[in-house]
Amino acid sequence: xxxxxxxxxxxxxxxxxxxxxxxxxxxxxxxxxxxLDVVASASFAGLDVAPYDPAYRFEAVLEPAGxxxxxxxxxxxxxxxxxxxxxxxxxxxxxLAVWSLKTYAGGLFLPVRDALAGSSTYGGGRYVLDTVxxxxxxxxxxxxxxxxxxxxxxxxxxxxxxxxxxxxxxxTLAVEVPVxxxxxxxxxxxx
Length: 191
Prior knowledge:
By secondary structure, the chain is α+β, with helices and mostly antiparallel strands. Helices cover 17% and strands 24% of the residues. The N and C termini lie far apart (34 Å).
């Protein structure tokens, strides 16, 4: 999915966003590893995603940062270690830490928690990059493409059976990021 999104985004990021939204909806509706439980699957009509806004797309230099380790305890994989490898400055929004996953296949990890967390976005934050899953926006020369329009909820936002690494203080922005995937209403709370 992200290979198609990166290819399309090279010329038209908004069109790539439309493809991403459509394909995520299809995955949630049909994939056997969807994080939706039986109740949520029965009423699933698509994810709530804000319209594309080019102001939230950045080509950022990965700046060196002091060493920091984040250990995430999981129910199935034990402790999963991450090491901070740098930071990216996202214009006037602020800076975010970029992490390297030190197990599985490795990769970059960039979560974000913004001022909307807990209201219109998931309270634990969202993921922007997770390269071990291929979820990234590619490079623009020597700069990392960070497009917050593609921020998505971690699996634990849909199902408490999942354990997810969440955004720390180093990945918290004081401003609102009104783009990307919005909070998912729990089917268990409806009615």
